[in-house]
Design a protein that fits this description.
Its EC number is 3.5.2.6. The chain contains 15 helices and 5 strands. With 290 residues, the protein is α/β, with parallel strands linked by helices. α8 packs across α9, α9 runs antiparallel to α10 and α13 runs antiparallel to α14.
Amino acid sequence: MKKIVYFVLFMLTWTSATVIELSDSNYKEKIKEHSQILLLFSAPWCGACKNMQPIYQKASSDNQSIVFAEINTDDNQEVSASYEINSLPTLVMLENGKELRRTVGSLEMNELNLFVSPQKMVNAYVEKCDAGDAEACLAIGQHYEEGELLGKDYVKALKFYEQSCALKNAEGCMYLAYMYDEPIGVKQNYKKAIKYYTQGCDGSNMVACRFLGYLYDEGLGTQKNYKKAHELYIKACNHEDEYACNNLGFMYSEGNGVAKDLKKALAFYTLSCKFGHNPACKESVNLKNK
């Protein structure tokens, strides 16, 4: 019985040691020992770091070909300074001692796996997307657009958003519309933006409803239609979209397409403020003081 207990304790100790601790004193030596090493810069006071540690530990067990290491920035300021660490947690991937990529902020397991093995994870996302998984299409599109874990590629982002939207993912339609609206990586096309925002809004994506309302409000890609804009803003505001509520406040304060009504303007600015839009808080105060 004792042998079994000792064996279990040994295995627990071994698995908990899959993440190695690096310090100012052993850093250079350890870096030379491993061709691929992932550095996690953290500190005891960092809440996001603590939240990520179990994920990091699990990922280290699942990716035996890469060494996972952790560096306490409080105790090892020399190494931390050499990497110009300003925010925690920070992840840095090294190959033969050279930095390949880095990212700042806590990652979920799928994001960490993507950071560790980008091509492997991309292939998995693409396979799921091609099999009809709209969320996978959306996720890979976002990664290509943001460029934090993958290199920015707006052409690929657009392609995956199109697939996601075609699979009736409302958020995918919203992102697709936004690329044509801004524009991002494509020629600006308000008509396409309206088309895809409409699909997103019909699928209950309130951000799409609000953006669509703005296009009608400003007459971008269509004739100005305050009535339509108002309807869309109301729909989004009723679902706690702070910007839509703010836009309604502005409509009533200026009398754009509606009868000027400062009481209603105050009510919508107050809602927008409640939902987290700070400029609306200032507008509320200004209206109260009139």
